[in-house]
Each structure stands twice: as structure tokens, then as C-alpha cells.
Amino acid sequence: NVAVILAGGVGSRAGFSRPKQLVKLGGLPVVAHTIKRFQSHPLIDEICIVSTADHLEEIERLASSLKAHKVKKVLGGGTERRDSSLAAIAAYEHEALSGPLYLIFHDAVRPLVSDEVIDRVINALRHYNAVDVAIPCADTVVSIDQVTNEIISIPDRRSLRLGQTPQAFLHDTISTAYAAALRDPPRAHTDDCGVVLHYLPSEKICVVEGDTYNHKLTYPTDLLILEKFLQSNGGRRKVADTGDRQLTQLRGKSIAIFGGTSGIGEKMAELGERFGAKVSIGSRRNGVDISHAPSVQEFLKEVVATHGKLDAVVNSAAVLTYQPLEALSDEDIVSSVGTNYLGALHVARAAYPYLRESRGHLLFFASSSYTFGRAHYSVYTSSKAAIVNLTQALADEWDGADVKVNCVNPDRTATPMRTRAFGHEPQDQLLDAQTVALDALSVLVGETTGCIFDVERR
Hints:
- The chain has 14 helices and 20 strands.
- The chain has helices at residues 30-39, 56-65, 81-91, 93-96, 115-124, 171-181, 192-199, 220-231, 263-274, 293-307, 330-358, 378-397, 416-422, 433-444; strands at residues 2-7, 24-25, 28-29, 46-51, 71-76, 102-107, 130-136, 143-144, 151-153, 161-170, 206-209, 237-239, 254-258, 278-282, 312-315, 361-365, 404-410, 413-414, 431-432, 452-456.
- The strands form five sheets. A seven-stranded mixed beta sheet has the order 5-4-1-6-10-7-11, sandwiched between helices.
- Helix 13 links the parallel strand 18 (413-414) and strand 19.
- The two termini are 35 Å apart.
């Protein structure tokens, strides 16, 4: 399975000063995020990037800096999209002679394609030689007279879909379609499936479901949308349930949990031990104060001395004071920030040497309020927004050491802290702490990093 990243656009429609695939998104060129998505997918064997001749060296340097070892080819394309597709098809002509070879074409400016979408495409290739990705059409579509600008018809949108990428093909299929296309005058096909549909009408094209996070950068406003999607890691969500998970992988793991005597942290400790993990709990009840760096350092030192290693560190400790800012004392603010943010920094800094040795996992917790500040708990909500940013920064910073950093962002959850802040609420409107704990533990046995996992009620 070869991912072909089409990065040959010049960005003239977008109004950017340089090609849109090289515009910065979250501090990295857009195409860098795209490369990382395919690099990390286990079913992608190789990556080919097709770019304009003016930017080939820049793309090569970028792939090298990302340590994207799956990138085997960086090719020059042409002025049209089909030129880029043709360059990739030709580059793999010889390899295709050895057996079935699949080309998975993807727009470089769709940087948030999910593993699930890639999975659907590759699974469909087991039964089809051509696969497209599309999402339902939510808006009314009108067909107009291009001269008078008047409506001609309104198609039934139930049969309409909005096309995305990837588009995937057996090499022989897409090669045959383009060979026929080259014998004709150029036509206005906007994608590769259009070429197969026109020139190989008997070839069935499967359409798999895309997602709205697989957004395309076309205009400057799209960059704002992608920035927000990137903040929540584009569609990486967990829907809370109590189904089976591969938590037996926790057996023998040394896990330190800060805040493990109450709420979600307490449930994680109980469940972790049930699945065979060696759980160590640090909280103020047993003399560990994460707002005090030496306390954190001493606790982790003791954990390693006891168990010989440290595989994962979880910080679930938090303080939530429900009062307007002007009603808070200096001590209240210092306490909240010291636990919710400085405490996270102390935990991360103290844990890193041990996690680097074990290639382990650091897990933070955010709150559903991080996306939009809430009245009367401004210090808490702003600190949780900081935790999200910290997660993404450390994941990038520690990637070379193979230390995974993620964050769980649960919907409203029934915990003692929440009850103290908001009083009693209808339980059917809240997540159960044990359910969130199960999902959080499942993150610890995964290989992703830099993700904000939303845990939602069904």
C-alpha cells in the first residue's frame, strides 16, 4: 500500500503568499501533518510525495526532519493535478509488475485524515479496484443557469455526497484509465475517480464514509477551522462504553497515578491493579503535593526504587473552585494554578528521564470546558486549555525519545470534585468515573501520541 501525497498545488485560489501545503498549521507546514498521519498508519507500507519542482528540496528536508522513514520517493509533478497522479503511476510501473500494488492518492492539504478513514479505504480495496471517500451533503444543492444565475433544479441531496480523499486504486486500474485519457483531448476531471468513471465505465467504484475533520485547506478561513480541529486532534474520540479492551497488556506495568485517591484517578488505580499493573498512588493524602516539585521528584524516585521501572505516569490531580474571579483570594488562585498547571509541569519534568528509559507514556486530563472558558471557574478552565497545549507540545518535543504524551478530555463526569463544585446533578446526564477510567487506561496501551481523546456519553 503506497500513500501518494499530492503536494503540487500553488495556492492561487487561496490567496496565500506561498503554496498552501507549505503554509504553517500549528507550527508545522500543512503537508507535515499529512505525512505524519500516513507515516504512523500501520497498513501504509510506503509514502510517495509529488510536489512542484521548485519545492522538491524543501519537501525532502521536511520528510527527513520528521524522521518519516516511509517516504521513499519525492517526485516532481506538473501544472495540473493529473500530472502529479501520472508521475506517481509511472514511478511505480516496475513495482506493479511483481504483484498487486495499490496507490492511495491523498491531497496534501487534507492534513487531518483519520486512521479510521484510511482503514476503510484499505479494507474496501480487498473487494474493489477503485475506492473513493465522501461524506453526506448537509446543505441544499442548487443547479443554476450560469448565464442568468437562476435556479434550474434542486437535486435530491439524499443521493449526493461531497467527495474527499484518499482515493485508492489497484495500480493496473488507474494506469489503464489514464492511458485511455491521454489519447483524448484534456477533460475537466477534478480527481482520479472521475478518470476511472469516464474511461473504465464497467469498473465499480466503492465509496466509503469520510468525516468532517478531513477538511481541505482552500481559503484562509479554512486555516482557522483546521487550527481548531488540530487542537482537538481531528476526530480522535472515544465513545464511552464498557466493552472489552486489550487491558491485559497492563500486566506487569509500573504505573504512577497522581490524584489516585479520588474520582477518575482512584478508579484507574483500582482497575489497573485488577489487570495486573503495579500501581503507585501519589496524592496529598499520602504526602505527595504536585504543586511542590521536590515532592513529585521524591515520589517517582521511590516508585522506581520499588518496582525497578516506570512505564506510565498519569496526572489526574486537579482543583476546581466555582466562584467568580473577583471573589477568589490570592491563595485560591495560587493553589489552583499550582495544582492544575504548575503541577503538570512538575510531573512531566520529573517523569521524563524514567519514561525515556522505558519508552513510556504520560497521560494528562483536560475538561470539556477547555474549548470555551466558563464563568465562575475561569482559573480551572484556562488551566485545562493550557494542559491541552502542553500535551501537544511535549508530544512533539519527546517524539524522538519515543515517549508518548496524550490527554483524556472527558465529558461531565460524576466525581467528588464535581459534586463539591456543582452540587448534586442528575446521574443520567453524567459519565461514570469508572467508564472514563477504562477509556483512559486503553490510551495507555496504545501507540498514539499528541492526542486529545474526548470521552463522550452514548
